[in-house]
Amino acid sequence: MKELIKKENIKVNVDVSNWEDAIRVSGELLVKSKSISKKYVENMIDSVKNLGPYIVIAPGIAIAHSKPDNKIVYKSDISLITLKKPVEFGNKKNDPVKLVFSFASKESEGHLQNLSKIADLLEKEGFVKEISESSDENEIYNLLNKI
User: Fold this and answer.
1) DSSP 56
2) Residue 42: which residues within 8 A CB-CB, separation 6 or more?
3) According to the model, what pLDDT value does residue 1 have?
4) Least crowded by CB within 10 Å, which of 59, 62, 92, 96?
């Protein structure tokens, strides 16, 4: 089975001061994996600034992304960080956020596939609680990739 999220793209108990830092840290994991350029990270932040906190899709969960772009996205990829202290994104219904996924796709089809994969995971009973409470990257990696 192909990995949904690589082990090196998972970081737990990250200490950030605001939502921008959360997106930067999560995005930087994809930069280190050589999946995206730093410009894509800035595009994810700009998307929230311009469109609002639409990326906060459920209580405690944000899925940071920007539009597909094959010039600054080198390969489709996903990262996940859990936050030491949840942060506000400005979404009254679903704040504060504890889990931040970042994903990048080269084309629109991959963009929708990645969103669908993440949505499927989040719908599994107890999954979000288990991930939120874990302090072990290996444990989270195994939970994410056992499907």
Assistant:
1) E
2) none
3) 39
4) 92
